[in-house]
Amino acid sequence: MVQIIGRVAFPLLPAPEQHFRVGRAYLSTFSETLMGRALRTLAAAAGNRRTVDWLRRGFSSTNNFTVTRLETIDELTVHVIVEGITLVDFLRGVLDAAADWTRSARAQVRVIAFDGNTATFELRWPHP
After folding, report:
1. 60 phi and psi, to 5 degrees?
2. Of 110, 97, 104, 102, which Cα lies nearest the Cα of 128?
């Protein structure tokens, strides 16, 4: 479904960028719902790491084969490890959109490893 939406909505972009933009749009659209507005407000109050941890738990609850972990690297950096995914750029887009939800400075989101099944995303904030 992500591939189809990406091709229709962003036909001139390469597939990875299409998937990224669909991921951002997915979370942005969700944030316009009643539940999304409530969670976005809560995320702003909860802070960076708690928001990322809630997302991590949400990824795990979407199906019975996705496993996620959160590793704190230092005060400004966390890694989100997600097993059981294939559309890494879609999830990168979701995380990138979620970075807008927190009150602090926006995190940089990048994929630092992907083996076709497990992706490691790094979220890095410029300051605490």
Report:
1. -70, -30
2. 104
